[in-house]
Amino acid sequence: MIKIGSHTLSNPLVAAPLAGISNSAYRRIMHAFGIGLVVTEMTSAKAITYGNQKTLKMLEITPDEGLVSLQLFGAEKAALVEAVRVVNDHSNASVIDLNAGCPVPKVVDSDAGAALLKDPEKAYALLSAMVQASNKPVTVKIRTGWNDALMTGVEMAQLAEKAGVAMIAVHGRTRAQKYLGNASLDAIKHIKEAVSLPVLGNGDVKTPEDAAAMLEVTGVDGVMIGRGLLGNPWLISQTLDYLQTGTYDPCVSVADRFRVLRQHATYLEALKGEKIAVLEMRAQASHYVKELPHASAFRKGLMPLQSMARVHAHIDDYEADLTRRL
Ligand SMILES: Cc1cc2nc3c(=O)[nH]c(=O)nc-3n(C[C@H](O)[C@H](O)[C@H](O)COP(=O)(O)O)c2cc1C
């Protein structure tokens, strides 16, 4: 059982932070499928301190999202501390996470995200200050190192523990690897063995078997899943079944798949309004149907649509077509 401060996770599965994706709509779906904890999209500490309206909206968490960790990114102590205070006072998040793994140049060039892997002492100072300022448990998400020559994951994890962090998530790649190659279970294991606080293993978990292997090979306390959950929240219930009983039902009915897809669309429209929801559903709907026949024609048909009514009609037509064929 993973404990983060006063919170006990109901199971060892955590939905990874996904910029542009793990918004409230996504989190509601993950919670409905039984995820133990879900992490928000990364949120700029600076933008929070500037009172940026779009960013402040990202702090809103609804009661049907379950346990939520709000992820911050930043490189300056003052901004991170101020952002933590705003989150303390204005967000229902249960946990605050620091992003120390994002590899994208825009983030790294501002010394945030994975850039912190180059300077573990700085990460320590930031995390210590956040822990001091926060009335919620603070966690950190790291990679195994900056590159092969600078494998700072173990040092980062040990310093995070010393700073009073409640849990660490480790993506088993270096910053240099970005998303290439495979996540290293060995490197995750190494980090898990170096600390005594709960550790989540992350990277390339696409099936219940992958999740079980992550737990078994690395000894981590929980598994964080990102891309594997896109359009596939059933992976949560399947993995929970597999971990408990050794078997799971791999089949998802067409009706169920489309029910959840429509639910996602409805939540997204309520969250972002019709115009943005229509645009974001192009990617999200594509994930839900990726393994179905004629998915590429469905995807193509979505692109020119400008209203949610049209999007729903397109989904209805595709479902009817598939049901006729099956
Ligand atoms: C589209 C996308 C957005 C991401 N956004 C974030 C983010 O905001 N914060 C973060 O720490 N990691 C982010 N990540 C990294 C994931 O959380 C995760 O570490 C990575 O995808 C590896 O796990 P996976 O193989 O299960 O997807 C993102 C990854 C993707 C593909």
Short structural summary:
With 326 residues, the chain is α/β, with parallel strands linked by helices. The chain has 14 helices and 11 strands. The strands form 2 sheets. It has an 8-stranded parallel barrel, surrounded by 6 helices.
Provide structural commentary:
- The protein has 326 residues and is of the alpha/beta class.
- It folds into 2 domains: 3-245, TIM Barrel (Alpha-Beta Barrel); 254-325, Non-ribosomal Peptide Synthetase Peptidyl Carrier Protein, Chain A.
- Helices cover 48% and strands 15% of the residues.
- It has 14 helices and 11 strands.
- The protein has helices spanning 24-32, 45-49, 53-57, 77-90, 105-108, 120-133, 153-163, 185-194, 208-218, 234-245, 254-272, 274-289, 295-302, 308-325; strands at residues 3-4, 7-8, 13-15, 37-39, 43-44, 68-73, 95-100, 138-145, 167-174, 199-202, 222-225.
- The strands form 2 sheets. It has an 8-stranded parallel β-barrel with strand order 3-4-6-7-8-9-10-11, surrounded by 6 helices. A two-stranded antiparallel sheet has the order 1-2.
- It is globular and about 60 Å long.
- Bound molecules: flavin mononucleotide (FMN).
- The site of flavin mononucleotide (FMN) has 21 residues, from loops.
